[in-house]
Design goal:
five-stranded antiparallel sheet; six-stranded antiparallel sheet; single chain; 212 residues; alpha+beta; signal; PEP-CTERM sorting domain-containing protein
C-alpha cells in the first residue's frame, strides 16, 4: 500500500505530502512526542511561553489549507501536555471576544487578546487569555498582541504576535521565566526527487520480475 501511494503521488506531481499516519480529532492530552514526529509530522516551531514571537514565524512556510497541530509541553519532555489540530486557515480565523468556531472537534479562537482552543462544545472566557474552568485539561491559550514584546491587546483585531503566557490544559498563570513551550507541527512533505527515485526502483523491480 505504501508503494502504491508513493507511485500515485509521484505521477504528475511537482510537490507532494503523504497522509500522516498520526491523526487526531478533537483535543488530546499526554501524547508521546515520538508518536507525532514518527507519524508523519515535523516540528515547525517551538517557542517559550515567556517569549514574544510573530505569528507568521510560528507558522512559517505552512499553506493556509494545510493541516496543523498546535500544543504545549515542558522543555525537554517526551510528552505533549495538550494538543489539537485543524487547517492553518481555521486556526487563524479571527473571532470576536469570547467567541469560538468549531473545526476538527475543537473550539478555536483567534484575536489580539489570545488564541487557542477548547474541547468541542465548550465556552471560553478571555480575560485576556481563556480563564474558564481552571481544572479543564482540554484548553490551550496563548496571550497575543499587536506589537512585539509589548502588551498591546485589542480583541476587535486579529493578532500579530504571541506574548508571555498563559495556559496549557490545567496549567495556568504561565509567565516568564518558564519551561513551558509552544509547539506547532505540520505534515512532513515528500520531496519529488525521492518519489521519482522510488518510482524508478519500483519499475526496475517489475522489469526484473519479467526477466525471471
Amino acid at each position: 500500500m505504501i508503494k502504491i501511494a508513493l507511485l500515485a503521488c509521484a505521477v504528475g506531481a511537482s510537490t507532494c505530502s503523504l497522509a500522516a499516519s498520526y491523526s487526531q480529532t478533537g483535543v488530546a492530552n499526554d501524547i508521546p512526542l515520538s508518536d507525532v514526529v514518527n507519524g508523519g509530522w515535523r516540528l515547525v516551531s517551538e517557542t517559550n511561553y515567556g517569549d514574544s514571537s510573530a505569528i507568521a514565524d510560528l507558522f512559517a512556510g505552512i499553506a493556509a489549507d494545510s493541516q496543523v497541530l498546535i500544543g504545549a509541553r515542558l522543555k525537554g519532555s517526551a510528552v505533549i501536555d495538550v494538543m489539537a489540530g485543524a487547517t492553518l486557515a481555521e486556526i487563524t480565523t479571527y473571532t470576536p471576544l469570547d467567541v469560538t468556531h468549531q473545526a476538527n472537534g475543537a473550539e478555536w479562537y483567534f484575536n489580539a487578546d489570545s488564541m487557542g482552543f477548547a474541547g468541542a462544545g465548550k465556552q471560553i472566557r478571555q480575560f485576556t487569555a481563556d480563564v474558564e474552568d481552571y481544572a479543564d485539561r482540554s484548553r490551550l491559550s496563548w496571550h497575543t498582541s499587536l506589537s512585539a514584546g509589548m502588551w498591546v491587546q485589542d480583541a476587535d483585531q486579529a493578532p500579530r504576535y504571541v506574548f508571555n503566557g498563559w495556559r496549557s490544559g490545567d496549567n495556568t498563570d504561565i509567565y516568564a521565566p518558564t519551561e513551558w513551550q509552544r509547539l506547532v507541527f505540520a505534515p512532513v512533505p515528500e520531496a519529488p526527487g525521492h518519489l521519482m527515485l522510488l518510482s524508478g526502483l519500483a519499475g526496475l523491480a517489475i522489469a526484473r520480475r519479467r526477466w525471471r
